[in-house]
Amino acid sequence: MSWNTFGRVFRFTTWGESHGPALGVVVDGCPPGIELSEADIQPFLDARKPGQSKYTTQRREADEVRILSGVFEGKTTGTPISLMIENTDQRSKDYSEVAKAYRPGHADYTYDAKYGFRDYRGGGRSSARETAARVAAGAIARKVIPEVEITAWVEQIGEVPLLYSRFDKAEIRNNPFFCPDAETVTRWEQLVDNARKSGSSLGAMVTCWAEGVPAGWGAPIYAKLDSELAAAMMTINATKGVEIGDGFAAVQNTGEGNADPMRPGADGSVEFKANHAGGIAGGISTGQPVTCRVAFKPTSSILTPVDTVTRDGEATEISTKGRHDPCVGIRGVPVVEAMMALVLADQKLLHRAQCG
Amino acid sequence: MSWNTFGRVFRFTTWGESHGPALGVVVDGCPPGIELSEADIQPFLDARKPGQSKYTTQRREADEVRILSGVFEGKTTGTPISLMIENTDQRSKDYSEVAKAYRPGHADYTYDAKYGFRDYRGGGRSSARETAARVAAGAIARKVIPEVEITAWVEQIGEVPLLYSRFDKAEIRNNPFFCPDAETVTRWEQLVDNARKSGSSLGAMVTCWAEGVPAGWGAPIYAKLDSELAAAMMTINATKGVEIGDGFAAVQNTGEGNADPMRPGADGSVEFKANHAGGIAGGISTGQPVTCRVAFKPTSSILTPVDTVTRDGEATEISTKGRHDPCVGIRGVPVVEAMMALVLADQKLLHRAQCG
Amino acid sequence: MSWNTFGRVFRFTTWGESHGPALGVVVDGCPPGIELSEADIQPFLDARKPGQSKYTTQRREADEVRILSGVFEGKTTGTPISLMIENTDQRSKDYSEVAKAYRPGHADYTYDAKYGFRDYRGGGRSSARETAARVAAGAIARKVIPEVEITAWVEQIGEVPLLYSRFDKAEIRNNPFFCPDAETVTRWEQLVDNARKSGSSLGAMVTCWAEGVPAGWGAPIYAKLDSELAAAMMTINATKGVEIGDGFAAVQNTGEGNADPMRPGADGSVEFKANHAGGIAGGISTGQPVTCRVAFKPTSSILTPVDTVTRDGEATEISTKGRHDPCVGIRGVPVVEAMMALVLADQKLLHRAQCG
Amino acid sequence: MSWNTFGRVFRFTTWGESHGPALGVVVDGCPPGIELSEADIQPFLDARKPGQSKYTTQRREADEVRILSGVFEGKTTGTPISLMIENTDQRSKDYSEVAKAYRPGHADYTYDAKYGFRDYRGGGRSSARETAARVAAGAIARKVIPEVEITAWVEQIGEVPLLYSRFDKAEIRNNPFFCPDAETVTRWEQLVDNARKSGSSLGAMVTCWAEGVPAGWGAPIYAKLDSELAAAMMTINATKGVEIGDGFAAVQNTGEGNADPMRPGADGSVEFKANHAGGIAGGISTGQPVTCRVAFKPTSSILTPVDTVTRDGEATEISTKGRHDPCVGIRGVPVVEAMMALVLADQKLLHRAQCG
Q1: Binding of NADP(+): at which residues (chains A, B, C, D) (predicted)?
Q2: Which residues of B touch D356 (CB under 8 A)?
């Protein structure tokens, strides 16, 4: 079954292919009375937009969003919000090679195995271009949770991690890597440039924090906040892993070392002395920052020829000469933020439904 | 909102608390005509059962499952299958300390923040005892996908990894650690025993393989097979991370290194020369083994006192003296297998719906 | 696909067959902190219970409900509420005739066509016995909407309608017909008794009112309150029609005649001068009583032999000698009320989710 | 909560308002490999299109549909199909009166009560214009169920029923009333014309048949085929009642009279001697024609002034001078057909999921 909808009560459905006339999203369940215009959405699309530096794909898309429904006199009405983004740079390139053979690491073979069919134009529905639609939806989600501030950044590219001692949030939007440290930027520039020039590609790690989430969002058992986040992040193209809080590092910790002790806070509230748990216990938010980390594999599209087969079952090899990201994880940052916002908006409304 | 149902067309709903009279699951959407009796389910519950060695909790539960509906003359009818397991060892211990203060790392505080309420008897709904119900459901799921063989094992406890060079699948059911190597067992025995004696606890990593999954299961975009697996695994108590295939290691790889080249196989099929991707591309199975790894944090229940607060907001400290697993990840193995089976059964039926 | 769950955020899942060991329901999404015990549920089950007069089936079931989860110290916890009712009077009758041939009007043939299977013991899952589970769930739903008062009654049996001029709500619970007029009762007694004695059966019409529903419940487009009610009522065994407000009579009315004019009410509220619409406009409640009417066909189980075929395709005839309701619509009254409550509870929570 | 999606595995989501720039639908879950172009959809939109005779609203819309995704090289790909229809005749009329006061019978008051908001431009989301989107989706659904032939017609307008003895299916598309008898057309012309001239309006009854539905579609308990149909039909603007088969007439029948006796058919099949049940037993199709009837109220927009209140709570009266259907049920015919197709396509895929 095809299932292109996400969310339980704040729900969105994306549609569109890499090289079709347009792509879009329908957001259903948005509360009424929220001020919304294209200007609220466009900046997030601009942050994700390709072709802005030599470190990302050279495909140039205006990615101009248009609101087609659900907003009246500048405010949401409570009815479905339809957003559309036209594709403008579907270069009429020669797809004959791609059409013939499966690109390893892409969805070429699996879509064909499933549907008996291939849309070879830039990957069709499996293209990361789909994420533009959810970044647009995410901008609406953010307006549903004004109490929450969401920030994501790249924490590692290939083998080069961010120097966390130099973390500067203000720096993140100042460079094409969403990197919170200018010095690390210099190292990554060279790294990614080398990969680009040699036709190779690099993996990346993206971290995301949501501050301001009150205690009590999330739900047992199969709508746990961490489960919803894991599902959300794992839908992003090229992701291979998700962790909450300390994540995999917790395996090597002890119960004492991993504890988040509590103490009385101001005004009868509760404070935590640590946040190993990433702001979630028993699937429900603790009131601390909700944190997660997402692993992106190196882009599968590389210049180096890789063995593959044709649709007719012949052995061949393929290399990708098109406009591709040498490190697709970088452009994952706005998408990770969007998914965090979309999950939290949904959980906020769910919580309100049951607990008033 | 409470959401205790998982699955899209093969759906199950669990219910019950740690210290209530019983717990259970309703499985809806199971195909008709499948032979099913309690004897098909009981072995999986037995594998998960507590109190079988000194390395797990000493709570003793018979965990006897009873089929209450959906089976007639030994076969599934296509209508809901209701399974019930009675709780028999809810020792009438003294809960006064637990009832008063929040246990850090548990859901005590978050449930109270959400529901204004606490079931202090062993964690109530947030107890890992709930997983008995899904292990039972998982046994039914396995019968829906007879073409698939699912195997999980513990890959690491604390800082001590399995020696993979000595991997022996037959060994897994021979020891209380679900460990595929007898020599590693010896090391873990000492490690876990030390933790148990000192009142500490340990994290663990569980790996799961599903062999025999045909190419084509899974669906774009928000029902991707890897997204469903991530959601499923992240609902298990104490999990903090999920990865598919190489997972986080892919971050440090290159496009060439991470490629899974293809070649023609026998009879017009396709073969892969590697499986970095964990058997999933574009959210759809490739026909290779589907592999994932799950990180379990160290049990939060430890003898060492930890700072916390009472429901009235007073500072205090708490230590857990009850019957607890020194390494809760060990007993996660049958649960991880169950969730893999449940996701795959659902995806098989979904695929059949759309693609015939 | 089997789909035994109803509701969007206040959801319930029923299970069980006519002649299995038990039947039950899991209610998920109930708000926490609501006082609930078996004593809140039992009266509704008692009202629906068979064997209470000669006008209904002589099967005698205690229909004792047991709460297995989701309630702690007398209050709902916000986690799934599991209710179970044991079957006690599954008389070991001779099913050989029923097992061999399809009973026309029953689900015998269609279940076999769908599932390749038949549970001939009293209809299995298709038995009206399933409605006990939802009546139990409905009792919980009522506690979620204390502002609403729901009343249903029988409006017509066969060709004999209720004399509305003599409508007396207090009378409804005083007779075995849920009839709001004692004089009509006398007429129906004779009618139903004749049908029972002659082995025939009668249809019935049930009307339901919900008073106290505030304006604003319901949602566009495919979760309209009237659509949800229609779906809910049409799931009840033997129902063949549903109408809201004036329903089919509106076909012969004019726009002027069918209008519900409005005028200013007290305290800035709005009043309506009529309620042709049944309290719903555009799928959303108006604040007036929500009214609907449900048509029940005559019981298919009759003494008169009817032509049918055996599972092997041979012509035969069948007559039903068992314990059956001569007018199954009568016992539909508590079920109609339950479904009204379940829909409204769900819509109340949905409304709260989106509109605060 | 807003909920603008319908269906379980073949799902569609509509969006758009009467006077926004466009409206549309996203169809998800369509099987791959089905030939599809705008030419397959347009005829159904044309049949529903306003402004084609003096008996319907004079709003003139081209209703040209555009496929934006999900189709590649003329065939469905299995990914979401996005359809868009631009609004072209949103006449810039004076809405000041409508904006000020609630039109009785419309969703004006209820939307405001729910959302604190009003889109007064032609009813916004509550306008019957939304049905264009589902008629488009219905055209796709029909291609999923080529074995089924769906036909709907008007059976009654006001007090004037169709003469069934003169039923001629070929006649239905020959007149603006979707009437299967030319003589009845003459009577209805005069009737509707009188209503139009006097500023009044009329109700209508629409009947729909689906022939070729095999036995076995539908599912217990809350996804019964009749329940899904009732929900679907009751979402159509102005509907107030739905019945299956004999529907409300069954109330006055007896068990013998209402029976659909069976006999052996050719080739081991089963035949029925009657179809009182409307082709559904126990919620599952019998293999006979699936039949239902839908009641439409008279259009609420009439010239006769009706008492109402302003948003400020002042008493006033309102009459509708715009371009409205004197009998909105007439244009319900293509919508009823579309909903029948959408329900059946969904149920076909659901059946395939569970029963192979």
Answers
A1: 48, 54
A2: 31, 352
pLDDT digits (tens, 9 = 90+) for A204-219: 999 999 999 999 999 9
User: A114 CB near a chain B CB, below 8 Å?
Assistant: yes
Q: Are A26 and A81 in contact (CB under 8 A)?
A: yes
Tens of pLDDT, residues B56-73: 777 777 899 999 999 999
Output the six-digit token pair for A170.
Answer: 């203000």
D139 three-class SS:
helix
Q: Are A248 and B92 in contact (CB under 8 A)?
A: no
Q: Can you read off the two tokens belonging to residue B101?
A: 């203060």
The percent of residues above 90 in pLDDT, for chain B, comes to 83
Q: Answer yes or no: is C127 a known binding residue.
A: yes
User: Do you know the residue count of chain D?
Assistant: 356
Q: Measured between alpha carbons, how far is A21 from C171 in angstroms, rounded to an integer?
A: 66
pTM: 0.97
CA distance A73 to chain B (A): 32
CA distance linking residue B81 with residue B27, whole number of Å: 5
Digit-coded pLDDT (tens) for D79-113: 999 999 999 876 656 677 778 899 999 999 999 99
At D318, list the tokens.
Answer: 């309102």
Looking at A92-238, which runs of residues are DSSP E strands?
A: 149-157, 160-161, 204-211
Q: What is the DSSP letter of A122?
A: T
C-alpha–C-alpha distance, residues B106 and B111, integer Å: 9
Distance CA B29, CA D351 (A): 10
Residues D107 and D127: their CA atoms lie apart, in Å, by 9
CA–CA min distance B122, chain C (Å) = 13
Answer for the pair B248, A155: CB distance below 8 angstroms, yes or no.
Answer: no
The span from the CA of D198 to the CA of C208, in Å, is: 36
Q: Look up residue D185 and give its two tokens.
A: 């057309």
Q: Is position C125 annotated in a ligand binding site? A: yes
**B101 near B310, Cβ under 8 Å?**
yes
Segment B194-208 mean pLDDT: 95
Name every residue whose Cβ is closer than 8 Å to that of residue B31 and which is 6 or more positions away in sequence: B76, B78, B144, B349, D354, D355, D356
pLDDT tens-place string over residues D283-298 = 999 999 999 999 999 9
Residue with tokens 């991470």: B258
Answer whether the bond into residue A67 is a cis peptide, omega within 30°.
no
Residue with tokens 């431009």: D121
**Strand, helix or coil at A229?**
helix
